Amino acid sequence: MCGGPSIGAAVGGSFDAYVVIVEDDGTITVTPYSGGLAVLPPGKRGAIIHLRNTHGNPKYGTATRVRQETAVNIGKMIRDGYSATYIVGKVFEEVSKDAGEKYGGGAVNLVSGVSTGDMFTPADLNETGYPMDEPYVKVCDECGWSIGYPAAENYQTCPVDGSKLKVIYAYEALKDAITVTNGSVSVSVYGTEEAGVVQTTQEIVRASVKKNGYSAEAIARSINRAIKNGFLVGVNYVEPKDINVKPSSRAVGVYYTPLPDDRTAPPMELPVSSGLLEILGNIQTALGFIMVLLVLFRSSLISSFRRG
Known about the structure:
This protein is of the alpha+beta class.
C-alpha cells in the first residue's frame, strides 16, 4: 500500500479491501476489491481499508462484515468533515473491537511527518504488540501528570492534586499522537523495554514541554522526579545530555540507561558524597590497625612485666 496527500493512494497484491470515495455533493461510493490493484485517484476525498482476520483470532470470520461496515463509516465521517486523524483513531477502535485485530499498530501523519513510532509495536519479533482496544495510560487533566499501564492500575487519583485520573485507550492515544496542535509533541524512548516506561515517559515529556517548553534540563528534572517517586522503574536517572530536543519538528528523544543486576530503582541519594564515605572508611580502617597495635603492645608489656 502506498499514498500521499497529493498523489492519492493504492494497494496491490493479495488483499481484501474497500475503496471509499466521497464526492463534493456528499455522495459516498464504497467499492470492494480482492487482489490486483485498487486505486484512490489523486484529488479525491476518500480512503482504502484492507482487513483480514489472523488465524487464531477468536473473532475469525468477522473481517468481511467489519471491513464493509468500517468503510461505510469512514465515508460518513469524511462527508461530515471529521479530521483524518480522528477517522484513523475510530477505525482502529472499530477494527480492534469488532474484528479482534487489535495487537500492535501505528499511524503516520503524512502532512506533518508525525508518527506513533514504537508506541504499540512489540519489542521483539514474533511477539504481539499492544492491544489497541485496552487502556494505555491514565492522565490528570488538571496538572498533566500521567502514568502508563500496567502501573496505572494502582492509581485512581492524581498523587499531585488528588483529581480523578482519565483513562486513555490505545486507539485514543494513537489519534492524539498523530494530531498536530500547538501542544503536539512526538516522543521517542530508547534503552528500555520495561512495561509502562515508554507510555509514562511520553506523558511526562509532553507535560514538561507544555509547561516549560523544549528544555532538556526541565524534561530531565521531570523524568528524574518520576524515577525518584517510583513512577518509572528499571531505568537510571537521566541528564540533560540524554534528552534530544528538536523544537522545529516538535520532537523529543529520551535515552535511558538500564539498571544493572535486575534492579528496579537507582541507588539512594545519600546526604554525604561517596568520596567522603570512602575517606571515612579509610580512617576507620586506620583506627582499627592502631587499636590492634595498641592491644599487641599492651600484651607485650604485660608479658615483659611478668618475666621481670
